[in-house]
Amino acid sequence: MADSDSPVARWSARYGALLGRALVAWTVTALAAGGVAWFSGFRGAADVCWIAGTAVALIPAVYWTVSTLLHGRAGVDLIAVLSLAGTLLVGEYLAGALIAVMLSGGRALDAAAQRRATRDLRALLERAPHTARRRIGDEVRTIPLEEAEPGDILVVASGEVVPVDGRVRDITVALDESALTGEPLQVERGPGEPVRSGVVNVGVPFELSATATAADSTYAGIVALARQAGAETAPVIRLADRYAAWFLPLTLLVAGAAYAVSRSAERAVAVLVVATPCPLLLAAPVAIVSGLSRASRLGVVVRSGGALESLGHATTLAMDKTGTLTTGRPRVATVVAAPGSDDTELLRLAASVDQLSPHVLAEAIVTAALDRGCTLSMPVDVVEAAGTGVTGTVDGIRVQVGSLPEERLRAPWARTVLNRADLDAAAIAWITVDDVVAGAIVLRDPLRRHAPRTLRRLREAGLSRLVMLTGDRSQPAREIATVLGIDQVYAGLTPAGKVDAVRQEGEGAVTVMVGDGINDAPALAAATVGVAMGARGSTASSEAADIVLTTDRLDRLADAMDIARWSRRIAVRSAVAGMAMSLAAMAVAAVGWLPPAPGALLQEAIDVSVILYALRALGTDPATRTELPPTTAQLLHRFADEHETLRDTLDLLRGAADQLAAGADAAALTKVTAAHRFLVDDLLPHEQAEETQLYPALATPLGSREATATMSRTHAEIQRLTQRIGSHVELARGAGRVDPEQRDDLLSSLYGLDELLRLHFAQEEENYFTLVDDPAGAGRASRHTPESDPAPGRPGSAPHEGTTL
């Protein structure tokens, strides 16, 4: 594809449309003037008008034919040249004028269809900012965008596009990220949080501290990809060329046979007229570019039509684990307090110290504390040391958050935390208060909510083999692979190892590789189709990829694959159906039943209908469409939000069970009572509302009430275990402690209900909540997004320093 910024491309864009409109105006005027003259009795003048229209159209037709042949493609425009010249030779001047209008009008229609199909891609280019407002002291000056440097303070006014990547300086801001993510709802970013270029400020003006130049910013990379997006090299376009390669000699053969049998040049010309397929074969690129445009609307930027179509043919999918199958952002799984300590206060102290740390684990701890309503204090005397973590004074208390040597972790509760973290492939941030080990924060990199459903959709789309590539240890990788049903796991890989694995999997198969980090770039380049999670991935991986997901959602890959298959299907149908109709018209013309002039009108109708059909690729394949009533979508959003809140409180169950396991004393009863109160006051009303409101609403889109029957059975089990725990609490209150005879059954109920609820939440989120975008969850996930790899020296405990998050 020619560079869209080249002088030739700019000249073509500026004057090509004008020449096309001028050609349409000339041929239509000549046809109309000839018609008026003919009906007025001036037959000679009518012929002159029609000859003029035909002769002028013949000039660009010859140019298009020669240009096509020079580019090594089948010259189906040669049929148009022969039909135009033929009408002049046999005196069918009206037919020639009709073909001229058809030819110019078809080109104009195709250009309009291309503009319609590329509208979303052009929107990316047109909204790119060219200037920025830089503040130095009290002076704000508008500068060319390329002069913005990291560290500059930029002012972003209301309604403006953020010019470069940076961080919010002063206030909480409201942003519209739909151009990058495809998500329509606004998100908020607080002071210090990262903001990507290309988003729109929909709130009050704010100041941005630039962290990258314009050339290295997010939006610049997306714009560069959009400039490359095109359909010339798509395999389906080459397929249309192959159709044309046999269509051209077949047309000449039929025209020659018609002349040989009838000795009528008029019949031969009539065959050429109805065979003129210039706009017809352009329907294939219209369909492919329509697919590119629709994909960009969903936050999928595709470099070329070839990449889009190859995605539709893929059979093997290789995926990096971190940031692709998992969120790439660690979350606090649980806070464990030493006996005599309070876990909420420990989380508050740790988050207060971590406020000033740029580390990815610190951001997760601060986020968890804020989500749980903790009021943070400003620390003093903060020191961050490599290999240790952060130490500071909070409200007169010396607090350290980070790793600890093995010899300080001998207490039974600490050993329990270590064992659990090892089993769960989690990282640990230990908390010391005045040099006493007081607790631990366990963090995990959770699976993406849409990952299981996305992988099922991709298998349905034709992928027969799913492979995971990771630099992480084998145990956590295999655990995720088991949950997702992945066929093969390659663990402990270096970047070179990932390349070797992709090449090995790609032998004899069309392979897609998905990754998000700098270390994934070589593997992306080695795959047939490289897909970068560009919303938070590196520039290197985005540049090496054929497709970039500008939204942080893996399920967009499945959407792109659906679009690829639908676009190719529409493109092939357009070309085949159009040529089939042309062949039928050629047969009718060859036997003398279709004169040149009516044949020209018929061919125009065929071409117009086929191009309009090709624009169907802008829509959704009906087979993949799931219609949700607005009220059902609102319910799904509501219960997804409630899940986010309830999940943070589920730790009450395990915490109560752990306390009871340590000793059936009054403190254990207090914990168990608090857990039961949470179940009765918060959890059961949520489950009951799902049963009576959400599940009936899902019956229609899912096909029947049976689709939620297993979840209803789980609700009943949750209620049964809650009642069982309540019975134990009532028995224990009289004695002020849990009776030893109750202890085993109560432990079983608490641990069992904890695991049941976590599984139930995951099932609902995977099966139901993924039917709609989750703006609330996505908005929260986008806060505290790490901009780089974890800083050195902020590991978990020593046994877990190798865990990749």
Automatic annotation (TrEMBL):
Origin: domain of life: Bacteria
Chain spans, region Disordered: 774-805
InterPro entries noted in UniProt: ATPase_P-typ_cyto_dom_N (IPR023299), ATPase_P-typ_P_site (IPR018303), ATPase_P-typ_TM_dom_sf (IPR023298), ATPase_P-typ_transduc_dom_A_sf (IPR008250), ATPase_P-type_domA (IPR059000), Cation_Transport_ATPase_IB (IPR051014), HAD-like_sf (IPR036412), HAD_sf (IPR023214)
Coarse class of the protein's main subcellular location: membrane
Record-linked SUPFAM superfamilies: Calcium ATPase, transduction domain A, Calcium ATPase, transmembrane domain M, HAD-like
KW ATP-binding (keyword) present: yes
Any one Gene Ontology cellular component term annotated for this protein: plasma membrane
Alphabetical UniProt keywords: ATP-binding, Cell membrane, Membrane, Metal-binding, Nucleotide-binding, Translocase, Transmembrane, Transmembrane helix
One Pfam family named in its UniProt record: E1-E2_ATPase
Record-annotated Hemerythrin-like domain positions: 636-771
A molecular-function term among this protein's GO annotations: metal ion binding
Subcellular localization, as worded in the UniProt entry: Cell membrane
P-type ATPase A domain span: 128-226
Membrane topology term: Multi-pass membrane protein
TM region(s), chain numbering: 20-41, 48-66, 78-103, 243-262, 268-289, 570-594
Family statement drawn from the similarity comment of this UniProt entry: Belongs to the cation transport ATPase (P-type) (TC 3.A.3) family. Type IB subfamily.
PANTHER family: CADMIUM/ZINC-TRANSPORTING ATPASE HMA2-RELATED, CADMIUM_ZINC-TRANSPORTING ATPASE HMA4-RELATED
The protein, known as: Heavy metal translocating P-type ATPase
Organism: Nocardia stercoris
Upper taxonomic lineage: Bacteria, Bacillati, Actinomycetota, Actinomycetes, Mycobacteriales
